[in-house]
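Q: A reviewer asked whether we had any structural model of the full assembly, not just the individual parts. We don't, so I'm hoping you can provide one. Inputs are below.
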Amino acid sequence: MSETHPDRPVGNIRHEWLRHLVLGFAVLVMVYPLIWMFMSSMKPDDLIFSNPTALPKSLDFSSYGRGWNVLRVSFGNFYLNSFIISISAVVGNLMSCSLTAYAFARLHFWGKTFWFALMMGTLMLPYHVTLVPQYVLFLNLGWVNSFLPLIVPKFLAVDAFFIFLMVQFFRGIPREIDEAAIMDGCGPWRIYWKIMLPLSTPVLATAAIFSFIWTYDDFLGPLIYLNDMKSYTVPLALRAFVDSSGGDSHYAELFAMSSLSLIPVFIVFLAFQRLIIRGVALGALKR
Amino acid sequence: MSSVTTIKDRQSDLPVHATGGWRGEFRRSLPGYLFLLPWLVGFFALTLGPTLASLYLSFTDYDLLTPPRWAGLKNYDYAFVHDARLRSAVWVTLKYVLWSVPLKLSVALGLAMVLDRSVRGVGFYRATFYLPSLLGASVAVAVLWRQIFGANGLVNQLLLLTTGLKGISWVSHPDYALWTLIALAVWQFGSPMIIFLAGLRQIPQDLYEAASMDGASGWRQFWRITLPLLAPVIFFNLVFQMIEGFKAFTQAFIISGGEGGPIDSTLFYSLYLYIEAFANFRMGYASALAWLLLIIIAIFTAIAFASSKYWVYYEDEAR
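A: Here is a predicted structure for the entire assembly that you could use as a starting point for your response.
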């Protein structure tokens, strides 16, 4: 999607500024809650809840330090856990989903249509159906209260959505390239590793970005599998923070830690904005 | 030309061992299955196995500590006939989906149409509108939402400032708590908006020019050109957002402190299922709830698809 379209006439000037007025107002409504949260993280509690537009008196980041250590485990620990899980999920999804997608897009094997239909079927299955038995399985494996239930499935290509995305992309790569490689004596593994993956960086990047964001934001998985505060992820820690204070004190600290927790996603968004928006526009990505 | 066809023939059995019979078939299929191996393990161990296990468990009593005991249709009987809390969970979830999805899609379409015509700053607006869709699923935003709609939160402060009225605590009032969650869903209109925008750009501009020439008003153009040509995209967004709505969990959990209150007014289906499974350890009943949800989602998707015959036309289809 390019920024401007030659076939789209700009309305007349009067409509142009009217549009910017509407859009500007919408931007304000959309973004103000986030700005309010950030400003509140630097205000004393009584000011947070009395004046909706006041700027903080000074750039006082001390609540960040206090919030960082408000629970008996520091937020440094939670961020480390979150990053270990999210980055493992990215690696797992990229490896397992691209292997699967390559098989479906390029290789010929007995029963391929059947397996492909089953794979597409799993896209429709709500996570609720497998929730309880998976928990029982991981409990019996002794994996509860470790990161394994959150990481291992990603290495087994359970996110069919990414497989689907990659199959679509691989199919768009000209077959002449593989054919030339076959003539040169390349086997399927070399074609996958030396040709398909290097040519697929856009789709791999899109899958990596969304794997990261979804895993980082995931709440239900960690809620079920992680019981010990030392293994908490950032979302779980925020919830523990709300619970511990009953949500009724330490507001600046709560807003500080909430703001901070959005920063990794925000940075990913700023860095890969075009890729993310193009991914969504393909009509395939949710959120 | 002939050389091309031979290459095509050769690549169709990728490792080039042209032997016949099942051994040849096996050798031809082997690389494919090797590549598929991680997915196959995951499919059987984490998807198909658990799905069948869940179906079985839904007919049992199971508390994790003692082995499952066969209970026949007891769980389903309880769900359909006796469980008043489930009835309110279904009602809350339906109300959430039926309000939030149309509202969200209307805002998304409206702003997509404004953006489609403006040239300057489209990139900025698009990115800013999309941002909440990316952040909205996080616990941090749910925590923020709880404060915004609290007794002295941002909403009431603005209300006091503009009208002088003192608002109530919206999140803890049973009549309004669900509406704060609907507002949170609508706030995330960015991703359907981007899909609408991509769809709007597919509509040939000369249709509008021809319509203007014939004297059709903007409103008429919207009903006669934009909506019909956008129908496939509207349909996609509708089905997708509906399914997402049925699956919503985190927002309700955080805003209600994990209990779906006040008086079950934010008890989303997924939240109730979680409570039954992981707070009450009624794993058999929770499995039955999961299957009922699957059926509910399937019914609504089927209704959407059935209705699409009457309002969704694809361009390559004869009218």
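A: Points you may want to mention in the reply: The beta strands of chain B are 60-61, 69-70. The CA atoms of residues 278 and 286 of chain B lie 9 Å apart.
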